[in-house]
Amino acid sequence: MAKELAELTTQQVFFVELFVNGETGVAGNATKAALLAGYSEKTARVIGQQLLAKRHVALAVREANIRALKSHASLAISTLAAIVSDERAKHRDRLEAAKALLDRGGYQAGEVDAGGDTPLSEMTIEELAAIVLKKNSIDVTPSGA
User: Fold this and answer.
1) What digits encode the pLDDT tens for the residues 67-77?
2) DSSP letter string, 37-80
3) Which residue, 34, 69, 104, sits at the end of a domain?
4) Residue 65's domain is classified under what CATH number?
5) Pair (14, 39) in one structural domain
6) What pLDDT, in 10s, does the model give residues 113-141?
7) How much is the pLDDT for 136?
8) Residue 51 belongs to what domain range?
9) Which domain of life does the protein's organism represent (predicted)?
């Protein structure tokens, strides 16, 4: 994969960075990313799509997305934990956040040893939060990384 990444031109590197991490309206927009990377206004739409179809550019976009996800994973987890702990939040929001945290921690319904026989679906938000908060660390490494 390093070989493919090394094949990027400077302009392609700019395109990838803008496509993945560009400001609102640019990120995820191949045409705007191509324009800002210095491609012609007349051909930016076509070039943007062509770049995304090139294997080495697609791999670079994938790698940049993985890096971006890793850098935001801790924030996402702390946001979920804050929702679980926020007594002012709606019950369903706290429950969904608790489920998401348990899921990211590798727990499946019925697999959590909560110190009793109560299924997760029948636990209160406080009981679910206690399980989540007891876990000392949550691995945020994406699957397959």
Assistant:
1) 888 888 888 88
2) TT--TTTHHHHHHHHHHSHHHHHHHHHHHHHHHHHHHHHHHHHH
3) 69
4) 1.10.10
5) yes
6) 555 667 777 778 887 777 776 654 455 55
7) 47
8) 2-69
9) Bacteria
